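Quick one: structure for this chain?
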Amino acid sequence: MDENTLNLIVSAIASMADAHQKQLHIISYAAVSIIGAIVGATELMSRYPDSPFRAVRNLSGFFYTLLNAVGAVLALYFIQHFNWDFGLGKMMTIVQIELTQTMAAAFGAMSILRSSLFNVRVGDHDLAVGPAAVLQVLLSATDRQVDRMRAEQRSEAIKKAMAGIDSYAQIKIALPTHCMALMQNVSADEEKQIRQVADNIEQLEIADCLKVLNLGLVLMNIVGDGVLKTAVANVVQSHKSTQKQEQLAEQRMRQLMAQEEQHQQALRDSADSDSGEQEKADKKTSQ
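Got it. Here's what it folds into:
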C-alpha cells in the first residue's frame, strides 16, 4: 500500500469521525434545548392547574420557555468550548462524554438561571440581583397575561358549568363531595381546604348566585372545567330526582289524607243516618 492510498484512508476515517462528532453535537444541542424548554414550560404549567397548557400559549410564556432553552444551549456551548469532561475523559467514550456534558448543561443552566448574586433589601422586600431577577420579571409578566386571559375564559366557563344551580345550600356539601369522589389523586389536605373555603364562602354577605360561582371557581382549580360540568350535571339531576320524589311523596300523602277524610266523612254520614233512623224508630215506638 503506497503512501497516497494510506493518506486517503486516514483522511476518510478522519472525515467520518468529524462527521460523527458533528452529528453528536447537533443531537446534543437539540436535546439540551428541548430539556431547557420543558423545564421552563413545566414551571409555568404548575402555576395554573386548571388549564396548564394555556400558560405557555402566550407571548410572555413563550419568551420564558425560550430563555430557559437558550440558557441550556449556552451552557453546553461553554462546556464544550472549554472541553470540560468532569475528569471522566479517560473512563468514558465520546458518546458518553457528550451525554454527560448535555445533562450537566441542561440541569446546570436551570440552577444558574434561578440563582442570584446577592439580595438587596428594598422596603419590606428582598430584591434578587442576578439571572433570577430576569426570570422573575418574565414570570411575573406571564402571570399577569395568563391571569387576564384566563379570567375572561373562566368567567364564561363557570357560568356555563354552574347553570341550573339556584341555591348555595343546594351544592355546598354535595358538589365538593362529588367532585372529590370523581377525582382519584386529590389529597386529604386539598379536600379539607376546599371544605374550609366552602364554609368561608357561606359566611360572606353576598348574593347566593355569587357564592355558587365562587365555589365553582375554587373547584375548577382542582378538577378542571370538564369534571366540574359533569359533577354539576349529576348534582342537579340528583336534586331534581329528589325533588320529584318529594313531590310524589307529598302528592301521595295528600291523596291518603283525602281518602282518610272521605272515609271519616262517610263514617260520620253513616252515623248520622243511623242516628236519624233510630230516632224515627223511637218515635214510632212511643206512639
